[in-house]
From TrEMBL:
Taxonomic placement: Bacteria, Bacillati, Actinomycetota, Actinomycetes, Streptosporangiales
Species annotation: Streptomonospora litoralis
GO molecular function term, any single one: formyl-CoA transferase activity
Pfam families associated with the record: CoA_transf_3 (PF02515)
Positions of region (Disordered): 38-59
The protein, known as: Formyl-coenzyme A transferase
Amino acid sequence: MKPLDGFRVLDLTRFLSGPYCTMVLAELGADVVKVEQPGTGDDSRRLAPKVNGESYPFGMPNRSKRSVSLDLKDERGRAAFHRMAARADLVIENFRPGVVKRLGIDHESLREVNDSLLYCSISGFGQTGPYRDRPGFDIMAQGAVGFLRMTGHPDGRPAKVGIAINDIAAGATAIYSILAAELNRRATGEGDYIDISLVDAGLAWTVWESGAYFGSGEEPAPTGTRHRRSTPYQAYRTADGYVTIGANNDRLWRRLVVDGLERPHWLEDERFATLTARMEHIDELQEEIEEVTATRTTAEWIKILDRAGVPGGPVLTYAEALADPHILARGMIGNVEHPIIGPMQTIAPPAKFSSLEFDIQGPAPWLGQHTTDVLADAGLTEDEIEALYADSVAFDEHPDMQGR
């Protein structure tokens, strides 16, 4: 049994923030029904590469779910959605503020059919504030919270974080917020409305940066791979690439210079004798360290650092990371069988529980794959469902594969 068994979710989200959230909920046991526009579906279905016409990137955050395709702009599609919502525990959407109100599927409208419903909205800037009506993707949110100005190398152009960090931050924030609201609902019977923004979620992760700013007015600037408060803590050049070194306290610093780099005289060098001195002479420290690290390969340095008890590691490409024996041993590469794509690889859930089941439940659905089943579960008759198909209010991209 899973912790969210029996928890029914209607997922109106697209792209990444919401789908990431609902993927996790699904793999914790929730029945997640992805509700998509006929013919097009989630915008991320357009993303390449495609295999047999199905988007591989779409398949990553949308696995373990079912898909219903309904035209919510049509009164009959909206009525069918209301009947689904009457039996749901959560509705989640990431439209621009105001869209669900115009469609008649907002929190207030759905409370009329389900007064204990949980409802979560994810948007770029939130449901309130002067920027609420602005469209906002991850890149806008990274710019709005300062990430583009604190990432990359000094004197370089603004740089984004290598992944869609604000999207994932918003999705993760939505996950724990929904779980908290559900715990409260189970205790009180009361539903709730949750307002998540990409900007707020990303800003909440600036923990040390906010401490430095509120404490001394320091604004975080790009530092490459360097730590803002400590050194040595960065990637250093080796004979064949880079090695990361994290000797960020006096105990580790001593181990590094004595047992690792074999430069014990640095302990007495006034430029490096204290953390304050090392931060003031960080450029010189990098030059001195790289004169040593450039003499051996990354693999050699990792062995030396391990023996010295100093944290260190390689700087891998993504392909190298996915092939790393530790990643494989941890079971982080999952496999699913998609009915159209065929065998697929994906990133498995990261948490390892001693007894709780948390795993991939199945592949992402094709557009409208479960439309008939879900509408029937909501109480629509066979004739009503067929009429919705006939008028293109309901949609199944591959009815020939259903035996419908």
